[in-house]
Amino acid sequence: MTEPLPAGPGWHPAPSPVRGGSALRPGRRHRDGEGWSNRTMAAGALIPPADLALSPSTPPRSSAARNALALAMFLPAVGAGYGVHRGVAWLTGLDRAGYAATALFVAGLVAWLAPKVSYRRRDAVWVAAVPYSALYLGWRFARRLAYLPHRDWPPRDDEAPGWIQVSHPTEPGALLYVQACDTAPAAQLVGMQDERRRRAVP
């Protein structure tokens, strides 16, 4: 039996699992005047007020600026890793020691940056164990870091409550994730959430 669609626009329990949800916590999806939109959020995320302008307070970087900044971070990191390898290999006379030192250097860098770009610190182990995987992951990290404080990737489940999905201010149809306090005072969102909870209690 097909469940009836919600009567009006707004945030509703998603008809199917969304990123940041699960079978037990399916998350929410936004319904506009015509049907389901592609805006989703985890079940525990804060719902912005209906009259809140759904665009971040500061514009995100353009694609060119983002890639340029990412390259400015990526190339020095690659150079530093190569420098560690050559330096340790020269000091010890062992090329393998250079590779091991580079792996430790890269793993430490990944563990430090991972939480900022929706990765886990334990991903550093995978990077250290798989040769040259750091080049792929490093560029991915750099592009994500270059876009902060905005995101165009979904937050992990444990990050979801602090982020909401909003419309891109300059690219029609595109979506971003921003921290709740970047679109409205955090107290406003928390107070609204508390009011909903009070109304739900019989």
TrEMBL record:
* Renumbered residue ranges of the record's region Disordered: 1-35
Q: Please, which domain of life does this record's source organism belong to?
A: Bacteria
For this UniProt record, give its keywords in alphabetical order, as a comma-separated list.
Answer: Membrane, Transmembrane, Transmembrane helix
Q: Where would you find the membrane-spanning parts of this chain? A: 68-85, 97-114
* Protein name as it appears in the record: Uncharacterized protein
Which organism is the protein's source? Allocatelliglobosispora scoriae
